[in-house]
């Protein structure tokens, strides 16, 4: 019996962790689906299309998403810059005008450097899009559009999965909307930028 006690099968802990992560992804995807406003996506596409300069603000892991957005939009011919440094955000926001669009990313909605920089850019006439999970009436006073992302308790801590996953979902959705507008020209631009990367 002593020997057999070591031979008993133990629960598959790895499989349970895998299921937990995948279930979390599925839950966030389902929530994302309910939050999407197709008309709002079109409005964001129009802002990106009509502004001469686009700036994306993000700190920490949100900054990584900002860089990803920059690379993807650049491939479609957009004049875009990602700004991750808080000091540069502050200085850049002072230089904003009506021809600029600033996209801020803050999962919690409490990243002071991003929020304060968005307010300053708004005061100077720029259009503002904020990607966040926070529902706050005050944000409507300085944001033209607020794209709400799906959240799960403690998601911002990045304990089980990346807190940027729901942000990337939203980015992929409005990117696909943006690609569909004037699709042939944008596909040509995309091909040209990809070719430029691989041509020596």
From TrEMBL:
Gene3D superfamilies in the cross-refs: Glucose-6-phosphate isomerase like protein, domain 1
Domain SIS, residue spans: 44-184
PROSITE patterns: SIS
Xref: InterPro entries: RpiR-like (IPR047640), RpiR-like_SIS (IPR035472), SIS_dom (IPR001347), SIS_dom_sf (IPR046348)
Classification via PANTHER family: GLUCOKINASE (PTHR30514), RPIR-FAMILY TRANSCRIPTIONAL REGULATOR (PTHR30514:SF21)
Record protein name field: HTH-type transcriptional regulator MurR
Organism, as annotated: Terrisporobacter mayombei
Lineage, top ranks: Bacteria, Bacillati, Bacillota, Clostridia, Peptostreptococcales
Annotated gene: murR_1
């Amino acid at each position: 019996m002593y020997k057999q006690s070591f031979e008993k099968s133990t629960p598959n802990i790895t499989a349970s962790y895998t299921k937990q992560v995948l279930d979390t992804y599925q839950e966030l995807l389902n929530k994302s689906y309910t939050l999407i406003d197709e008309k709002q996506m079109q409005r964001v596409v129009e802002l990106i299309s009509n502004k001469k300069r686009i700036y994306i603000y993000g700190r920490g892991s949100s900054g990584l998403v900002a860089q990803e957005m920059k690379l993807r939009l650049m491939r479609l011919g957009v004049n875009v810059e990602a700004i991750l440094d808080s000091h540069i955000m502050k200085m850049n926001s002072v230089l904003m005008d009506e021809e600029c669009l600033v996209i801020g990313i803050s999962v919690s909605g409490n990243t002071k450097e991003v929020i304060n920089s968005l307010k300053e850019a708004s005061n100077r006439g720029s259009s503002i899009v904020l990607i966040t999970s926070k529902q706050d009436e005050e944000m409507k006073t300085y944001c033209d559009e607020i794209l709400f992302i799906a959240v799960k308790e403690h998601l911002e801590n990045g304990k089980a999965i990346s807190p940027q996953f729901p942000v990337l979902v939203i980015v992929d959705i409005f990117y696909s909307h943006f690609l569909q507008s004037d699709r042939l020209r944008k596909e040509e631009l995309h091909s040209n930028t990809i070719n430029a990367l691989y041509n020596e």
